[in-house]
Amino acid sequence: MSLYSRLEQYLEEHSDDAGPVRGTLSLPRIGMIWLAANLVVTTLLTGTLFVPGVDYGLVVVLIIVGTLIGAAVLVTVGNIGTRTGLPTMALTRGPFGTRGSLLPVAANVIILMGWSWVQAMLAGIALDFLVASVTGFSSPVLFAVICQTLVVILAIFGHTGIARVEPWLAVLILGIIAYIFVVAFTTYAPAEFAAIPADASIGYTPILVLDVVIATAISWTVLSADFNRFATSSKAGIIGSGVGYTLSTVISMVVGATAIGYVVLSGGEAVPFDPVTIVTPFGAPLAVVIFLSVMATNTMVVYGMVTTIVNAVPGGTKLKFLPTALIVGVISIVGSTWFGLLNQFTTFLVTIGALFAPVFAIMIADYYIVKRGAYTRDILRSRDGRYWYLAGVNWAAIVVWLIGAVAAYVFTYVWPTPVGATIPAFALTFVLYLLVSLRERSSAPAVRSEHLSDAAAQPMPHA
């Protein structure tokens, strides 16, 4: 038997790619996974976008508020994964239909691939800084490819490998971040950071800051059920992911805002979303944080893409984990050489919010209200059943999703609201979906909530 065949056999026996699964991870373990997840360079560099455009003190407040709002959506969707054992995109079959769910699935894979590329590029830049400072050799593209190759290898071994590595990386990253805070605030007093004059010409406003912070949580919600389905209970998933995500996001973004503030106070040029700008004054420790954070987080992103594709269609012949991971991995490695994407990061985040805030509004309304807190085992079927709707598509959900996405765009660029675009677009979509689903809810019998891994073990009617 070849090495590939042995690896494929091992992964098919031990892989957690297909759902539903019964969770085994404790609250602290889930918390550490999510803590490490968002201690990542993209979140850190997002904080560099806000200062000096908005007052430093106000930025910190907006980061905390926006993170708490976004985390509420993340844990609510993640809890559906804990209760059913299914990953996030498999759950979209509930409101969108077996075939209709392929639309958000496709959008999710594209967006996760973009995340993967961005993180690999930033890790490559950080690793290039470390190597160049010692040897003089510089090739960010080469190092981005090396970083992404390591990520793909880690992702192939699924959540088991991630769960083992994440806690150790989180501890190391937090230690280095503490060092950065000490350097920043012993060099300049907190009052000096607060006194940095706001520069309106940069183009950031408090409302835009809030929207970007919430959009960051929305971008992570696409993976919330993927990992929270491994929690032993709803309590473990909700508290673990809520606390872990909130702490990691607030710490990372505030570090970014503090680092760019340090650059401004030192008389340097505040170039936003540029790792070299903030790595230069802090040196190797910050470069190490960026590299390790990508190893931890990008592994989750690549794994999430593979999980999404493998679970795209229920029943029938499922795609195998290893060849899917290899194909996705090769694409992610090649794409990591496209450095031009870094110039479009803010637009990328806004697009994620516009596409997926309405999706999650629909998912939450459908599971907790329309379906009364339970999905039946019909969701595991490839045809017919409760989630087949009209030829596999719930057109009402598709239309409401489009309305919500358009509303998010309008509230961002045409009619800005006092609370940004994400919150009103989410609320509008939530209400519209409930209105178009009233008949379904009133005619649907109450269903006893059960974990679908139990239902999957029972014989199912022929489709």
TrEMBL record:
Keyword Transmembrane: yes
Family, as annotated: Belongs to the purine-cytosine permease (2.A.39) family.
Subcellular location: Membrane
Protein name: Purine-cytosine transporter
Keyword Membrane carried by entry: yes
Main location: membrane
Name of a matching Pfam family: Transp_cyt_pur
GO molecular function: cytosine transmembrane transporter activity
Species annotation: Agromyces albus
Gene Ontology cellular component terms for the protein in this record: plasma membrane
Record field: transmembrane: 32-51, 57-81, 102-125, 137-157, 169-189, 201-223, 243-265, 285-309, 321-341, 347-369, 389-415, 421-438
Entry-linked Gene3D superfamilies: Hydantoin permease (1.10.4160.10)
PANTHER family to which the protein is assigned, alphabetical: CYTOSINE PERMEASE (PTHR30569:SF0), CYTOSINE TRANSPORTER CODB (PTHR30569)
